[in-house]
Amino acid sequence: MTVPLAASALADKSDNEWIFGTASHLAGSAVPGRTEREDMTIWFSLRRRLLLLLLGGVSVCWLGTLVWSYVDTHHEIDELLDSQLVLEAQTLLALSGHEADEMLDLGETDHRSQKRLRFQIWTDTGQLALHSPATPRVPLASADGFSEGTDAEGKHPYWRYYGQWNEDRTLHVLVGENRHDRDDLIGKIAWRLLLPAMLGLPLLGTWLWFATRRGLRPLNAVADQIAAREPQHLKPVEPATAPEEIRPLIESINHLFARVEQTLESERRFTADAAHELRTPLAALAAQAQVAIRARDDNERQHAFDQLVASSRRASRLVDQLLTLARLDPAQAVPLGSVSLDGLAEDICAMHGALALEKDIALELDALPATVCGDCDMLRILLRNLVDNAIRYTPAGGRVSVVVWADALCVTDTGPGIPVSERERVFDRFHRLAGQDTEGSGLGLSIVARIAERHGARVELDTGDNGQGLRVTVTFPSNDRPKPGDAS
Amino acid sequence: MRVLLVEDDPQLGDGLMVGLRQAGFAVDWVKDGVAADVALATEPFGLMILDLGLPKLAGMDLLRRVRARGQDLPVLILTARDGIPDKIAGLDGGADDFLVKPVDLDELAARIRALARRAAGRAMPVLRHGGLVLDPAAHHVTLDDLPVELSTREFSLLHVLLENAGRVMSRAQLESSIYGWRDEPDSNALEVHVHHLRRKLGPEFIRTLRGVGYTIGK
Predict the structure, then answer these.
(1) N or C end of chain B: smaller count of CB under 10 Å?
(2) What 3 state SS string does chain A have?
(3) Which of the residues B12, B16, B104 would you substitute to probe the A interface, choosing the one with the greatest number of A C-beta atoms within 10 Å?
């Protein structure tokens, strides 16, 4: 599923998924085993996320400012208009004290101001001395100071009242102001605050949308560079410019490339080596077959046939060893299990008993009960290679001893041994010691080393008893320690 | 012709040795570079088949040594390495031919004959001397267009004498070029072969220089 998904993401690069689409495309082609894990990824758009975060943040800030401004303006306007109301009441009181009679003839005022403002002046005896036109004849408010009231029908617009007595408490003034105007004013101010925000947010959003796209363009360039690569092209990605933020990503990709390159190179070398190594036994088969065809007598023919059999045995042994090595793929995890080393050693020694007898070699086993954590089949191959090598390289009359204890096994022979200078290189594939007549594949110790590595075990080479022969010791990690499962 | 085979693989070495003997060459087989070096320093060989991956002394090092000593025998590299750089290094390093394993025995024999021919300064595949025609590839000899039956040894002897026509070949030279190490000739085997050749080709064909050796005149 990953590949078409990645392909569609690549095709539609205007969208933001391309970064991850490319990454999964890469992972898909380089490490096919990982695709299933890759499907678990929850994809998200970096651009969308940036946009939401930025717009969200900006909106919240804007809204906060707006609310605060509204509340503050409301408060200020209330204060301003309330003080006006007080001033009006006091003016009325002052006026009414002197010219109350004249003021009874107020005449008609314009309709608009009647709706906005109203007042009543009551005497201390409870008589309405003066009032604005179209004002009810009942007290507008009962309390002194500020109060709120509805209109005659009991509905909005309601009024804000202020009541005050004159100094000698003979006249009581009630002034009302229609709240509607006040709210209208506050609403207008709020609207003026809100309007730029409403227009600005979409503009800002659009700008951010393009800005993030532009900002993420360097990623696009890097992705293009990676997407345009041939599978064999594993040199580091080196964009001319790249955002500092994706440096870790590029660095880890380059690191991965380097490791893949190394693995590929080692596989390439192995394949080439293997092909070369197979050529010699094949050449021998061909030569012996031709010799057999042209044999001048029965002896010669028989000899050629014997050699043919030996050649084919060698070729198949080489192929077996190659397959064994190939199966020890470092990418696969070692199946864990309890393996009885002593039991395994007994098996292997019994298997090689006949060969040892044939070569007149004393094969000895000294095994204490020992259990290690690992894969039984692999450890069998390891032990078989060690014992096989020991018998192969030990001359007739020699001795091969296998010792197993606790978490180690040790195979000692009385063969030619391995000079100190060669001990590093014998683990290399196809490395054979100079001057040996024995027909090894040159792979035995590489196999041993690889299996040991997969089990976190250590392989040491040393001289055998009395400074003669070879001793190979394989030490496994202790059981109580967690086992290093994957060597890769 | 005497051929030195340098090959460390036991079955391949054995197969090549026997196969080339069947093709009429005297073959000596050594399994490492040092033994080959010693053999070349002490015995005359007409050609060397050289493997590159050799124990003790690598093939290319051996070749360098041999050429440094001034030995100009034809060298045919027979190896599992098939890279162009390997071939270039081999040929530029003094080899005359480069074959990649596995190789057909017939092709190998043909290449050996071609190299020997060139080394002897000839281009013609057959050797002629009067009415005598020797075809090394077909292992075939005719005298005045009539086939002559010869044993392998007789053929080798006649071949060596014809290649060196006009020169006197000592008894030791002749023996070392038609016998390998394994087949030690008895003291008068060479005389017996010469006798047979004279009987088949005419008494005056091979001349004896008493105490010196044999020759076929120009």
Answers:
(1) C
(2) CHHHHHHHHHHCCCCCCHHHHHHHHHHHHHCHHHHHHHCCCCCCCHHHHHHHHHHHHHHHHHHHHHHHHHHHHHHHHHHHHHHHHHHHHHHHHHHHHHHHHHHCCCCCCCHHHHHHEEEEEEECCCCEEEECCCCCCCCCCCCCEEEEECCCCCCCCCEEEEEEECCCCCEEEEEEEEHHHHHHHHHHHHHHHHHHHHHHHHHHHHHHHHHHHHHCHHHHHHHHHHHCCCCCCCCCCCCCCCCHHHHHHHHHHHHHHHHHHHHHHHHHHHHHHHHHHHHHHHHHHHHHHHHHHCCCCHHHHHHHHHHHHHHHHHHHHHHHHHHHHHHCCCCCCCCCCEEEHHHHHHHHHHHHHHHHHHCCCEEEEEECCCEEECCHHHHHHHHHHHHHHHHHHCCCCCEEEEEEECCEEEEEECCCCCCHHHCCHHHCCCCCCCCCCCCCCCCHHHHHHHHHHHCCCEEEEEECHHHCCEEEEEECCCCCCCCCCCCC
(3) B12
**Inter-CA distances, A172 with A119, A168, A368, A452, B28, Å:** 11, 10, 117, 108, 145
Q: What is the pLDDT of residues A115-134, one digit of tens each?
A: 778 888 888 888 888 888 77
- A435/A275 Cα distance (integer angstroms): 23
Nearest chain A residue (CA) to B103: A283
**Dist CA A351 CA A347 (whole Å):** 6
Q: A-B interface: how many C-beta pairs under 8 angstroms?
A: 88
Judging contacts by C-beta atoms under 8 Å, the chain A residues touching residue B31 are: 437
Token pair for A147: 């109060």
CA distance B123 to chain A (A): 28
Q: Which amino acid is at B67?
A: R
Distance CA A120, CA A133 (A): 10
Type of residue found at A338 = S
pLDDT digits (tens, 9 = 90+) for A372-397: 888 888 888 889 889 988 998 888 88
Which residue, among A293, A296, A307, A316, would best test binding to B if mutated, counting the most B CBs under 10 Å from its CB?
A307
Answer whether B15 sits within 8 Å of A287, measured CB to CB.
yes
CB contact under 8 A, B55 and A436: yes
* Interchain contact, B32 vs A435, CB within 8 Å: yes
Query: Per the structure block, which two tokens stand in for A120?
Result: 């009543």
The tokens describing A368, both together, are 């204490």
- The three-point CA angle B79-B18-A286 to 5° equals 50
Partner-chain contact A284 B12, CB within 8 Å: yes
Q: Residue A205, by phi and psi: left (phi above 0), alpha (psi -120 to 50) or beta?
A: alpha
Q: What is the pLDDT of residue A441?
A: 63
- Pick from A277, A288, A436: which is nearest to B11 by CB? A288
Residue A98 sits at the chain B interface (C-beta within 8 Å): no
- Residue range A29-75, pLDDT digits in tens: 444 444 444 567 888 888 888 888 888 898 899 889 888 988 888 88
List A residues 109-128 in contact with B (Cβ-Cβ < 8 A): none
| Predicted pLDDT of residue B13 | 92
List residues of chain B with CB under 8 Å from any CB of chain A: 9-12, 14-16, 18-19, 22, 31-32, 55-56, 80-82, 100-106
Q: What is the rounded distance in angstroms from the CA atom of residue B185 to the CA atom of residue B157?
A: 13
| pTM score, whole prediction | 0.55
Least confident residue range of A268-272, A338-342, B196-200: A268-272
- The tokens describing A145, both together, are 């100071």
